[in-house]
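# step 3/5: fold
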Amino acid sequence: MHEPNSQAFLADLMDRLVQDWNQLQSLTALQSVAPRVESLLHDLESQRSRVGKAAVMTLVGSTGAGKSTLLNALVGRNVAISGEARPTTRQPVIYRPSDADVEEWIQDLPGPTPRIEDYDARGEGIWSGQILIDAPDTNSVEEQNRAVVQALAERSDVLVVVAHRQAVAENSTTTFLDAFKGMRGLLFVIGHGDTLSEQGRVELTSQFQSIAKERFGVEDPKVHVLSPLRVLQTGQDPGWNGFCADLQEATLAGQLTRVRRYNALGTTQRLSETLSPFGAGIEADLTEFEGLLNTVSDRYDSAVLAEVFQRLDLRSRDVEALLWEEVGRRWMGPGGMALRVGGLSSMGLGAGAWLARRNPLLAAGAAVGALATQKIQSHGRDRSMRNGEEWLPSKAELQRVYESAFAPVKLCQRQLGGDTIHFPDPVEIHGALQDAVEESMGQLLDRELMEQAELGASKPWRWLVDVPVYAFAIWIVIRAGIGFANGEYVGMDFLVNAALLAGAWLFLARYATRLLLRRRARALVAGIKTNMRSRMENSLDSTLGKSLRSVGQMRAGLARMIGVDRTWKDRILGVGSIADPDD
């Protein structure tokens, strides 16, 4: 019980209220009422902080009923002197932890000045650390005692009425307690329960419940038969846990009642009334601001995407070349070799060297050189396409787009106020766009291009190209074998002509393959445009999401502050035994 539930409960409400105001206080529309709102918040915090203090319990009862022993049991150690002499207590005794402030409870208290006793809050009792008041005896001959006890009870969170087992219906006690009829936070304890049989416990509980209901107006009286002495000595008693549970509930309700007594709900009502006239105007301004934020993506789409797509169209041949190379890597056969030996110019150089010089080595060297050149070009092409800077406009152009897109948004913010709204800077926007481009190109090069290369090098097409070459080669071998058997040589001219025929077939196959791959490359470019548009829009939306969330938080905070009165009433009045909001 060192940290009452009500403290965390109200701290949550107060923290949310302060957070909402911190978001809204810079709005231009609220500057005229900002001092008033801050004053009300300070007042409300002062009222709430009272509840953060220790719970206050006042124990009342007749002499010998066991108030002091119960107090000791609550704390877990002997801090109050118990006795049987009448009257045991002639002045209130307030037992408090050394850091607890009790000035508000003793101010203007009738009767003798209360005696204040500090105690070590590190006791073993679960209620150690709370403020406990041992009130004057209710059956004292001194009438002033009753006025003192009534004043203490009104200032306490919970009132614990301790009755002697032999005087449950003692006239002086019941007459005195008539003054507390209808009070909340009222618990009844019958002491010396260790001397009672089980039947005696039941009978006394029933008797006291009837008195509490009929005479004190308590609808559901909480009556507990206890032996505080046994709790103090052994830490156990059959009714102790039930008593502590009811005491905690009554304490929470009592502390929240204290909030109402200090007019916290009146403060929240004034706070709501102060802000309500500005609600519609601020909501309209926030809606306009949100709409302008949503146009930023459209402005970037029209300016940046158009530039990126134009560059992509210009480099569509690079996509085609990369696809061509990937198909060549996957094609193990004459057709794949024709794709890998280089471009048409390299093939023409090799063929010319073969025909003009009858030099196969020169032709092979030309092919190898073309292949090496192609590899270098391919590597550079891949790196260039993965670099987002290659696709985006220059930083100066992006800066102009940023200023154009955010100019109306910033103008609206200056009129609205709202310094807490986050704006992405040009570096954030540039980084988001570059990431979107690089992710899109990475998807193209690492996945989609590979998938299309697998389709381009499909088995049916490879067989269509390679089988005639293999058949032609077999025919040449057969002819050479027959000539060798007959002593006739096919000659170099025959081999050159055969190579030219095979080359012509591969040239046609290469050309047809390129046409097919060009169509696939165009489909890839169209797909990457769609993907890039989506990624850029999502990236911009994510970057602008902080600003949009700030607007949403301001809108929600404004609604909460305008409805703060209803919120506090609903939550405070719905906890514990607090009921009617109008009483």
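# step 4/5: annotate
Confidence is low (pLDDT under 50) at residues 84-88, 344-350, 352-357, 575-583.
# step 5/5: archive (pending)
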